[in-house]
Amino acid sequence: MIVVIDERELVTEGYHSLFNREGVASAGFAPDEFGEWVETVADEELKAVSAFLLGQCEEGDIRAQRIRERSAAPLIALSERNSLDDTLRMFEWGVDDVVRKPVHIREILARITAIRRRAQQEAATFTEIGAMRIYFDGRDPEIEGQPLPLPRRERRILEYLASNPARRVTKTQIFNAIYGIFDEDVEENVVESHISKLRKKLREKLGFDPIDSKRYLGYRLADT
């Protein structure tokens, strides 16, 4: 999920529509609403955020340090003025990148991916579970060295399960990570449909179902 912070509701709604067309969950906040939310939101919900986009806000409305204390997600400023001083001030404030508007939504997504990729250079960019190699940089997983093309939602579910190898994750946690915690247009039960399709594809390649589920406890990946 991508969080957009801007004092203009028209702007946050516009970005929500654009991200939705790309199949990316998003949520919009006014600066004062965001400040309260980032202070009180549960850690598990905050993990669903893949990036923060900072639009028009009064200076001092948003504390970059507090965001950093709670999330390592990229922080990108959206600039509407061609001003070197403004750009340098934003970097000093603590953002990872400054993007001058107008900008295509796909460029924003590409910049987010690039920032996350750089941040992961010292960390593992994939994990191996049995015969599966699951990437965290947007690539399709591989089974015994062969790519397994997956739709975006199914791939993200597999990545999320692989990123939580030591514990079970609930349907709600998966939904929040894939669709965002503020998406009221999609029912949470859609997760079951995605997992059912994912299971079928994995079973065909592996010969068994690697997604272990227990009622009330959630899901996890198994290597046998």
From TrEMBL:
InterPro entries: CheY-like_superfamily (IPR011006), OmpR/PhoB-type_DNA-bd (IPR001867), Sig_transdc_resp-reg_C-effctor (IPR016032), Sig_transdc_resp-reg_receiver (IPR001789), WalR-like (IPR039420), WH-like_DNA-bd_sf (IPR036388). Residues 124-223 form the OmpR/PhoB-type domain. Gene3D superfamilies: 3.40.50.2300, Winged helix-like DNA-binding domain superfamily/Winged helix DNA-binding domain (1.10.10.10). Residues 124-223 bind DNA. The keyword Kinase does not apply. GO terms for molecular function: phosphorelay response regulator activity; transcription cis-regulatory region binding. Coiled coil: none annotated. GO terms for biological process: regulation of DNA-templated transcription. Residues 1-116 form the Response regulatory domain. This is DNA-binding response regulator, OmpR family, contains REC and winged-helix (WHTH) domain.
